[in-house]
């Protein structure tokens, strides 16, 4: 069940997609628990409004914002480097931002837009922040997944193709990549104090997730979501619980839904696949020698 009481005083958290929807509700609940919270998204106007609202509701003035655009690796790098240079600690990283129904195109970085927003951007951000997270241990990484991952597949030769996948397929592929990434984080950081979890919010009402769909599909989907979806306030509490619950320290690598351990994708136990995904992802996002703390730690 959800942990409702554990405090996060003295802890610092980053929440991507924190200006609205689930990210906003998660950030609000972290602030209520006493955390220092940095909300991040690409819209500065919405960020300012969200920061002010969270501060007012929670009476926690330790809420700030920074701009990040996951569709731009340059923006992700800038955000990550700024964080490393200005934050003495980072205890919680919540990769919440994601999108459905984005245009089927490549970004300025040459990557499939949905794959970059839902996976590659989060991979790059996490990779650069991992030394800070490790130095701040015990620390947690929470990655947003989805039930669509069960129908996803990873084809390293074609995962950035345009015109190959429909919107549901590319979403599924991106969320499967997130699940495999989370498993590899657990493999590489076990016993370091850095723990990683994936989280499926199921279906959530009153968010912007459907905004990119064609009007007809959006209206039909919204009717379904309104009937079966969870309130975003409740899901925000669930995610904050994953960040705060002390009983999860020994549960790294697990997948959660409704505040319970849930069935993960069967491929997360394929160590060769998760390691391959890690290494190819580093190449795709062009990890530089200066950024490559794995290489630097060896030398």
From TrEMBL:
Xref: Pfam families: adh_short
SUPFAM superfamilies: NAD(P)-binding Rossmann-fold domains
Gene Ontology molecular function terms on file: oxidoreductase activity
Domain of life: Eukaryota
Record keywords, A-Z: Oxidoreductase
Record InterPro entries: NAD(P)-bd_dom_sf, SDR_fam
Protein name: Retinol dehydrogenase 12-like
Gene: LOC112051268
